[in-house]
Amino acid sequence: MIRVRQLSLKRRGAELLSGIDLDVTRGEALALLGTNGCGRTLLLEILATLRRPTGGTVEIGGIDALREQSRARRELCLVEAEPGLHPELTAGEYLEFCLESRGIDEGRRRRLSEGLRLAELAPEQLIGELSPGLCQRLDLAAALALRTPVLLLDQALTKIDPLARPRFVRALEKRRTEGCAILLATHCLVGLDGLCRQVAVLQGGRIVARQALAPGQDPGRILAGVSRDGSEGSE
Fold first, then answer.
1. What's the DSSP call for residue 129?
2. What does the alpha-carbon distance between residue 48 and residue 46 come to, in Å, rounded to a whole number?
3. What fold, for 85-147?
4. Integer Cα distance of 87 and 81 in angstroms
5. Do the Cβ atoms of 66 and 3 come closer than 8 Å?
6. Which terminal Cβ of the chain has fewer Cβ within 10 Å, N or C?
7. What is the pLDDT of residues 13-56, one digit of tens each?
8. Strand partners for 183
């Protein structure tokens, strides 16, 4: 579903991403781990067709995302770390807008209701009065309601509280079992071992390792181990 080959991005002579090869297959969830400034958000923005790379190829669902951006966008949904939700909309209006903008008519009422239930929000609640964590709940619930074949998540669980987080992880796991390809950029791996079977490590704009994710594995130790070994993992 996601296929990246020799992806690079340069800006003002600096190489921000270099030689990235990455695959996320149908029904797979991959955690993308890295330190601040490693290039995770840049990579997800390129995959979401929001930014053009300097070189390389990107396929989303078999579609050349660099040549056919509109077609590729219909296959994916990006959930950003800082949701840019309109403060004057209600939670119900935002979900309605997301579904309508994708041309989803069949089952729209049911999806809207399921999204509100997942986020634990009333349809009339004003976005401008929601906490950052509740906004993130709403944005992720909307992405799940769209049921796109590909989900790109940039720190999409970071602000969600420990009681609600397992519920969203279960919802993501359900989408994975339905065939969705999920790429999850994160700092925190707690509770993700049931969702993500593998983790890829991005350092200095390069994928330097890809390995199995063990239950309770400490992300700090993964990063420290990769830095100590100085090795490049295979995709």
1. G
2. 5
3. Helicase, Ruva Protein; domain 3 (1.10.8)
4. 17
5. no
6. C
7. 899 999 999 999 999 999 999 888 899 999 999 999 999 999 99
8. 30, 152
3-8: which pairs have CB atoms within 8 A and are 24 or more residues apart? 3/57, 3/58, 3/59, 4/47, 4/56, 4/57, 4/58, 4/59, 5/56, 5/57, 6/55, 6/56, 6/57, 7/43, 7/46, 7/53, 7/55, 7/56, 7/57, 7/58, 8/53, 8/54, 8/55, 8/56
Which structure tokens are listed for 62?
């078999």
pLDDT tens per residue, range 208-232: 999 988 777 777 778 777 765 554 4
Where in the chain is CATH 1.10.8? 85-147
Homologous superfamily (CATH) for 2-75+148-229: P-loop containing nucleotide triphosphate hydrolases (3.40.50.300)
